[in-house]
Amino acid sequence: MTVLKTSLRNFLAHKGRMALSAVAVLLSVAFVCGTLVFTDTMNTTFDKLFQATSSDVTVSAKGSSDTGETTSRTGRPPTVPASVVGRVRGAEGVRSAEGTVFSTSVTVVDAGKDKLSPSSGAPTIVGSWNHNDARTMKITSGTAPKGPGQVMVDADTADKHHLRLGDEIGVITALGTHHARVSGIAAFRVTNPGTAIFYLDTATAQRTLVGRSGVYTNVNVTAARGVSDARLKKNVTAALGHGYKVQTAKEVADANQKSVESFLDVMKYAMLGFAGIAFLVGIFLIINTFSMLVAQRTREIGLMRAIGSSRRQVNRSVLIEALLLGVLGSVLGVGAGIGIAVGLMKLMGQIGMHLSTSDLTVAWTTPALGLLLGVVVTVLAAYLPARRAGRISPMAALRDAGTPADAKAGIVRAVIGLLLTGAGGWSLYVATEADKATTGSGWLGLGVVLTLIGFVVIGPLLAGLLVRVLAAVILRVFGPVGRMAERNALRNPRRTGATGAALMIGLALVACLSVVGSSMVASATDQLDKTVGTDFIIQGDQEYKMIDQQMVRKIKDTPGLARVTEYKLLDASLTTPDGHVSTSETINAADPTYARDVRTKTVAGNLADAYRPGSMSVFEGFADRHGIKLGSTVAVDFKDGGTARLTVRAITSDEAVVDKGAMYVAISTAAKSVPAGHMPLDQLVFATAEDGRQAAAYKALKSTLSADPALTVRDQTDYKKALKDQIGQLLNMIYGLLALAIIVAVLGVVNTLALSVVERTREIGLMRAIGLSRRQLRRMIRLESVVIAVFGALLGLGLGMGWGATAQKLLALEGLNVLDIPWPTIIAVFIGSAFVGLFAALVPAFRAGRMNVLNAIATE
Predict the structure, then answer these.
(1) Where are the domains of the chain?
(2) Which of 119, 274, 365, 335 is nearest to 343 (CA)?
(3) I need a surface site. Which of 83, 275, 331, 489 has the fewest CB within 10 A?
(4) pLDDT band at 402 (very low <50, low <70, confident <90, very high)
(5) Strand partners, 94
(6) What confidence category does residue 68 fall into, taking pLDDT thresholds of 50, 70 and 90?
(7) With 90 as the cut, is the pLDDT of residue 775 above it?
(8) How far is residue 340's CA from residue 348's CA, in Å, rounded to a whole number?
C-alpha cells in the first residue's frame, strides 16, 4: 500500500510531464482501435447489404462469378435461358422464381455526357426491376420503369448528381447507348456503401445489356414456408442438373463478403502496421520520460533506500507509475479511437462511400486489445528505467553520483550496436547480390530490422560524433549560445540518441519509400521510352471497361492516324509438347502491328512472326519449364471456342516490363477458333499518328471518345504523368499514416526538452544571474532542439536511402532497373526536420524563459 501511495504521489507530482507520454500512448491506441472499429463497421454494413439483397437461392450460368458480378471480356454478362425459370418453379419447396438481368459492364451518363458512377470505386449496376429488389428498395418518388423510355435510379446517386424526375440519362454498353428518362427514385432500406444502381424494365434490360430476349443473368428463387435454403438448393439442383450455378443466400453473401474483406484486410493491416510504428516510436518517448524522472529523483530514491525500501519496492514504484500512465492513455485512446472511426466514416462519405453510424460496431475485443497493448507497451518501456532506479545504491544516490556502471554499460552497448549494424549492412549487401527477388526480399527484411535496431543501440555513440559535426556547421555561428546548446545536447548522449532515434524511424521509412517510388516511376518511364513505339494508348478508366467494336470503328475513322492496333485478352488452356496441361492461362491477341507498337525483347525468333497465321509466342520461363523451342507446337484450347494447334515462332525475354510473361497470337488466328459472339472486346487500342500530325490526331481522338467518357486517350506524356500521379497518391497516403509516428516523435522531443529544462533549473538560474537574457536562453533551447531533430533526420534519411537503394536492386530483377534518388524530397524532409525541432522547442523554451531567477537558483 505504501508503494502504491508513493507511486500515485509521484505520478500526480509530475502530471504535466506524464501528459505528453500519455498523449503518445493515446494516439497509438486510438489508431489501433479506430482501425478495428472502422473495418468492423464496414464489414457489418456489407454483411447487412449482402444478406438483404440475396434471394433464398440464386441460379446463374455455369462459370459465372461467385459474387454475382457480371463483368466479362465480351462486355455482356453470361446468361441462362428463360426456360430455366419454369423448371425451377416446378422444383419441390419453391414458392416463387423470377428471372432478372443485370450487368456491371456499363457506363451511365447524364444529358451532358458526364459519368454518373460512384467516386468511391464501387460498381455501377444496371438491371431489371424485380420483386427481390423491391424488398430492399423503397420508391420515394415517381414510379418503377414500365417501358423502354424509363429508368429508375437510387436516391444516393440522384442526390449526388442532382437527378430529378424526367432527366435524361444514357446507358452505354457493348451493344451501344440506350437513352431513357428518370421515372422514379428509390432509396435503400439498408445502408448503401456507395453503389450506383439504375433499373430498367425486364424486356429493355434484356435488349440493352444482353442484346436478346428470352435469357436472364440470374433466377431469384424464394423458398416455401418451412423449407431451408440448403434443402431448396438441393431441390433446384435436382430439377436443373449440374449445368448451372446454384447458390444459397449465405453462399452469395459469403462470396461477396470475402471479396470485400480482401480489400478491407489490406487496409486494416496496413493501418495497424503504422500504428505499430507509432507504438515503437512511443517506446522511446516513454523510456526517455522515465529515465529522466528517475534521474531527477535520484536523491529521493536514495532516501527511500536509506530508510529501508528495497530494490524491488523502488522498481515496483516506477512500474506502478508506468501502469497508471498506460491505463490512463489507453482508456482515453479507446474513446478517441471510436471518434477516429466515426471521422473516417464521415470522410468516406465525402468520397461517395456511405456508412451509417447506426452500424457502428465496437466488438469487446477492440477496447480489450487497445488497453492490453497500451498498458503492456508502457510497462515494458518503463522496465529499463525502473530496473536502473532499483540498482542505485543509497550512498551514491544521496551524493547524486548516479550509477557507477554507466561507462561500462556504454561500451557494451556500443559494441553490440556496431555488431548489429554490421550484420544488418551485410544482410543488405547479400540482398543486392540475390538472383531472385523472393530470396533477396528475405535478406532485405532482415537487413532493415538489424540496421534499425543497430542504429537505435548505437545512437549514443553516433550522437557524440554527429552532434559535434552538426554543431560546427549550424551552432557555432550563434556564438556562446550555440556552444552551450551543443554541450547540452552532448551532456547525455543516451538521451539525445533515444530522442533522435524516435524521429529516425519515421523519416527512414519516408526516405525508403520515396526512393522506391521514385525509382519505380523512373524505371517505368525508361521502359516506356524504350518499348512503346506508338503515339496514343486508349483504354477504359476501370479494369472491366472494354472498348466495343463500334467505338473501335470510330477510332479507325479518326483523321490523322496512320495505324490502329487492337489488343484483346483471351482465356485458354494450353497443352505443351511435354504433355503438361496448363489451365487458366491468358493469351494476348493483337493485330500484327502490335510488334511495331510495343518493342518486346525476344531470346529466340522475331515477335512479328508470332502474328503469322497459325503461330504464337511464349515467354522464356514457360518455354524453359516445358521444353519449348522455336517450331514447337502448342495446343491452345480457347474458352468458349475450339482448340488450335499453334507453332511457336518467338520466345520473349523474362526481362520485359511491359506485358511481362505474355503469350501472343494474332487476332485473326484466335478468330478462327473463337466464335464472333464470344470474342472478347478490346482491352486496349493503340493509335499512331501520321508524321507531323500528332497534335491534330490527339485532339481528334479526344473528340471521338467524348461519346463514352469512361474511355481515355493518353499520349506518352499523359501516361507517364498518370503513372507518377498514381504512385504519388499512394506515397502521400503512406506519408499521411507515417505522420502519426512523426507526431509521436515530436512529442518525444518536446518531452525531452521540457524535462531537461526542469533538470537544469538551478543551472538556468545561475546562467540568468550572470547575464544570460531570456531571448538567449530561449534561443539556446531552440538550437538544442534543432540539432537533435537534424541528428535524427540524418540517421533516418541515410538509413532510409540505404534501404531504398537495396529494394531497387531487387526491383531490377523484375525489370525496374533505374535507381532514382528524389533529392528534392530528401532535402525538403531534412529542412522540415529543422522546423520540427523549432516547433518542438516552443513550449519548453517559453517556460524556461519565464523562470524566476532567484527561485531557480534556490532549487535543490
Answers:
(1) 1-54+252-404, 63-242, 408-457, 459-541+710-860, 546-703
(2) 335
(3) 83
(4) very low
(5) 223
(6) low
(7) no
(8) 12
